[in-house]
Amino acid sequence: VDEFGLISRYFTWPVRHTALGVGDDAALIDPTPGCLTVAAADMLVAGVHFFADADPRGLGHKALAVNLSDLAAMGAQPRQALLGIALPAADEAWLAPFADGFAALAERYGVDWVGGDTTRGPLNLCVTVLGEVPRGMALLRSGARPGDDVWVSGVPGLAALGLAHLRGECVLAAAARDAALVRLHTPEPRVALGFALRGIASACIDVSDGLLADLGHLLCASGDEACAGARVAMPLSAELEWDAVAAPLTALLPPIGDALRRDAVLAGGDDYELLFTAPAACRESITALTAPTTAPLTRIGRIGAAVAGENGSLPSSDRRSAEPVITLIEDGRRTHLRSRGYRHFG
Ligand SMILES: [Mg+2]
User: How far apart are the first and last CA of the chain?
Assistant: First the structure.
């Protein structure tokens, strides 16, 4: 067995609901009638997305978890995963726990590992996941409408605080530190919540870049949809209540410095929570979801009308140049924030 034969040994598992798994030129998949296939891929590069000496078991978990989070944001059922991996050397002491972390999460979400590729090179992981959603039921970024509530799951900023702790930018008490590092290193994808939000949420995205940045993506996509056919599409706007956005983190932590808290909550990436919108009429059904999905849900603001940029001028014909206006309401004061450019942990 050559050294890269070793890798395939660690990554060859029996398939449970796939017609043909690893071993031929390609896998064969039986789609469920009435469902659309949902596909997503994410690349994780050592030194960019994780420390090269990161715990391999956690890394195996996270490489799959961030992809399952994208499926969750679509309301999809995860089905299969493919793994492309470049490794400096086929080191069994690294591969065994990495495969273990990946496989344990795959098992929990009923994901079949059906293929991939291995090569020698700087440590780099590229995971592709496939899932399914009944036709017409997928959650999209583009469905938000003015007047909808904005909700988020979990504790916005928790993963970023874990990173700040590792960088020596703050010192967290043991309980908060543990929670933050778990969210940073082994995030739990909100798959059950994604299912539960089918037919309830008007739009959904997972928070990977930061709350403001990802809300900005949702506002742009929804603005394009709302302005379909218009000469100029403008993003929708949003108002966020600071007390509500910061409440989950504040409940967990003693004072840590206002600037750090603000950066973590508004701009911290890596939370992999779901940020979604829904009509106000859905408040009770959303509150009722909290228990079975285990992730606490917080209503943090509402969607506003499409508006021109901060300077009051219309955006240029390049739709992507229009930056959404997000207003933070704090003690009655209103501050306009930039969805792009507000970066600390970026
Ligand atoms: Mg995403």
Answer: 42
85 Cα–ligand 1 center, Å = 21
Q: 322 alpha carbon to ligand 1 midpoint, in Å? A: 20
279-298 confidence digits (pLDDT tens): 999 999 999 987 766 789 99
pLDDT tops 60 at residue 313 = no
CA of 70 to the centre of ligand 1 (A): 5
- In terms of Cβ atoms closer than 10 Å to its own Cβ (0-12, 13-18, 19+), residue 100 is middle
Burial environment of residue 94 by CB neighbours within 10 A (0 to 12, 13 to 18, 19 or more): middle
CA 103 to chain centre: 20
Query: 58 by DSSP, 3-state: which?
Result: helix
**Number of CB atoms found within 10 A of residue 28's CB:** 11
Q: What is the pLDDT of residues 62-116, one digit of tens each?
A: 999 999 999 999 999 999 999 999 988 888 899 999 999 999 999 999 999 998 8
Look up residue 228 and give its two tokens: 């379909």
Q: What is the mean pLDDT of the chain?
A: 88
- Alpha carbon of 73 to ligand 1 centroid (Å): 7
Of 51, 48, 49, the C-alpha closest to 166 is: 51
What whole-number distance in Å separates Cα of residue 118 and Cα of residue 89? 11
Q: Which residues of 231-250 are buried (b: 16+ CB within 10 A; e: fewer)?
A: eebbbbbbbbbbebbbbbbb
At residue 140, what are phi and psi to the nearest 5 degrees?
A: -115, 165
Give 208 Cα–ligand 1 centroid separation in angstroms: 6
Contact 149, 223 (CB under 8 A): no
Residue 148 CA to ligand 1 center (angstroms) comes to 21
Reported pTM: 0.91
> Under a CB-based contact definition with an 8 Å cutoff, are residues 126 and 85 in contact?
yes
**What digits encode the pLDDT tens for the residues 246-268?**
999 988 887 677 888 999 999 99
Residue 111 CA to ligand 1 center (angstroms) comes to 19
Do 247 and 232 touch, CB atoms closer than 8 A? no
